[in-house]
Amino acid sequence: MSTNKQSFGINYVDLDTWLHRLNGVTKFLLFITWITVVLTTFDLRIIIPLILVGLYLLKETKVPFSAYKPLLIGTATVLSMNAVFMFLLAPNQGNELLGSTTVLVPILGHYVVTQETLFYLITVTLKYFSMFPIALVFVFTTHPTEFAASLNRLGLPYKIAYAVSLTLRYLPEVKSDFINIMHAQQARGVDLSKNVPVLTRISNIAKILGPLIFSSLDRADEISNAMVLRGFGRGKSRTWFSEKAITKTDKAVILGLLIIVVLAITKRVMETSLFWYPFN
Questions:
Q1: Which stretch is the leader sequence (predicted)?
Q2: Residue 9 has what pLDDT?
Q3: Share of the chain above pLDDT 70, in %
Q4: Does residue 105 sit in the same domain as residue 196?
Q5: Counting beta carbons within 10 angstroms of the beta carbon of residue 114, is it exposed (0 to 12), middle (13 to 18) or buried (19 or more)?
Q6: What is the mean pLDDT of residues 125-149?
Q7: Is-contact 93 42, C-beta < 8 A?
Q8: CB 185: neighbour CB atoms within 10 A?
Q9: What whole-number distance in Å separates Cα of residue 140 and Cα of residue 28?
Q10: Structural domain tally of the chain?
Q11: Domain span at 154
């Protein structure tokens, strides 16, 4: 039975790039601005440049492609399946939204691939995908403690900010526990490969999740006790070891992000139609 070592998950990568040197507040606002722009448009003239810029920024992180290749494949697979299910549930939604019908491929009954529906599905899929690169950029270049300091600096109570920091910091530990438990179960004869039926595989995965949950609860209890013993939460404010000063570069980027948000919202308010469709 194969027990190949598994490797997955994403976390902060300590490198010296201009993206790493940006303040955590700036990177968080960049992420929020990106999401705002994506959520306010169905215009491929904006979505495609966002994807290209996002992939460029991802390359600028200097993180090897092999580190996020599985996530890229997984995201593309999930979005493709989502597009198929959207078509199966509402095959005429593109026609209704764009106000025309151009039949490309008749399938069966009312299931007909039209140019409008195809364009709609491509737009929605690329819209969702455009958020993937910037999410990776944010995670790869922002230390959890720096991120918590950024949230606190933006006005979020430091207790909540610290909880976010702990969550991000211990995700790699949870991943490591999962792999260790999985290898231990495989050594005991639990088969997680494609050689067993799907239902059996799901049942075997449950044998991993149980110990993982209990070990995570034990770790959470230990951390909670340690924080109580150190008097965490007694003060009204706190300082942060990883907090960075906001530089002129950060201020310039934040100003640019503010302008982009205003332009995106203005464009959405002034638009007469939700979708940009060049074939009308």
A1: none
A2: 52
A3: 95
A4: no
A5: buried
A6: 89
A7: no
A8: 18
A9: 12
A10: 2
A11: 144-241
Instruction: Indicate yes or no: pTM above 0.85.
Output: no
Domain membership of residue 139 (yes or no) is yes
Contact 70, 149 (CB under 8 A): no
Q: Are 73 and 93 in contact (CB under 8 A)?
A: no
Confidence (pLDDT) at 184: 86
Q: Look over the chain and give the mean of its residue pLDDT values, rounded to a whole number.
A: 84
Is the four-CA dihedral 91, 92, 98, 103 of positive or negative sign?
positive
Same domain, 154 and 124: no
Give the three-state DSSP class for 16: coil
Do 208 and 237 fall within a single domain? Answer: yes
Give residue for tokens 């040197």. Answer: 21
The answer on 100 and 59 residing in a single domain is: yes
141: which 2 tokens? 């270049």
Write out pLDDT tens, residues 80-126: 999 999 998 988 888 888 888 888 888 877 788 889 999 999 999 99
Give the 3-state secondary structure of residue 275: strand
Q: Are residues 256 and 130 in the same domain?
A: yes
What whole-number distance in Å separates Cα of residue 277 and Cα of residue 45?
Answer: 10
For residues 271 and 136, membership in a common domain is answered with yes
Q: 6 lies in a domain?
A: no
Helix, coil or strand: residue 91: coil
pLDDT classification of 6: cutoffs 50, 70, 90? very low
